[in-house]
Structure to design on (222 residues):
């Protein structure tokens, strides 16, 4: 059974710092991995999607990497801003439709 | 910007009452998902439909939960009778492939 974990559960950093969020999954047989952002009281917004054949994806200040063999993904946020404060969830696609979510990392960027 | 719309946004009711949550998926999306989010369990898939046909509802307690899609513009999730342990945020998401687009959720409190 696929399990997804995220470390740390919470993170607080000063504005401008670069940071890394971690995601681990137990079964390497995945279709893809996504990183989502969730703001308080809101739904999830997709940030980056990495196909199983890819190693990384970039969007602006965000870079996500995927090492399928070791069951790991990282989300790198450069030059963090207070507006980056949110919960970040990773999710792995295990079949045509099913997506398993991690518990999330709650990020606070302090001005 | 097309959005997934969920109603109501908040619902407080007493245990034993019937609860109906509604979702209007993005026009043209052929897959609709229902998720439940709690602090303890995180985000869990309850059920999903493709082209209005139920494909998987194994995540739902079938004795009290039911999900339907009477037409392409409406998906419903019902709980009858409701119990305090059903208190959670319920999200609807729609997509055609990935990524899924999430609504802002229904925050349900069962007293």
């Amino acid at each position: 059974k696929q399990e997804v974990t995220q470390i740390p559960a919470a993170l607080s950093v000063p504005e401008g710092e670069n940071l890394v969020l971690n995601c681990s999954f137990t079964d390497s047989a995945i279709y893809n991995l996504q990183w989502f952002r969730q703001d308080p009281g809101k739904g999830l917004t997709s940030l980056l999607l990495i196909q199983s054949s890819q190693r990384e994806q970039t969007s602006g200040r965000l870079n996500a990497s995927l090492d399928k063999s070791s069951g790991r993904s990282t989300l790198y946020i450069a030059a963090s801003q207070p507006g980056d404060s949110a919960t970040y969830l990773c999710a792995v696609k295990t079949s045509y439709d099913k997506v398993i979510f991690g518990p999330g990392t709650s990020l606070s960027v302090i001005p | 910007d097309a959005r997934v719309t969920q109603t109501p946004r908040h619902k407080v009711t007493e245990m034993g009452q019937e609860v109906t949550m509604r979702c209007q998926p993005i026009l043209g999306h052929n897959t609709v998902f229902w998720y439940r989010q709690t602090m303890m369990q995180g985000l869990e898939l309850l059920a999903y439909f493709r082209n209005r046909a139920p494909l998987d509802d194994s995540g739902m307690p079938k004795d009290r939960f039911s999900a339907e899609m009477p037409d392409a513009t409406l998906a419903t999730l019902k709980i009858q009778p409701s119990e305090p342990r059903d208190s959670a945020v319920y999200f609807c998401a729609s997509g055609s492939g990935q990524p899924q687009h999430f609504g802002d959720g229904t925050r349900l409190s069962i007293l």
Observations:
- Chain B touches chain A through 21 residues (CB under 8 Å).
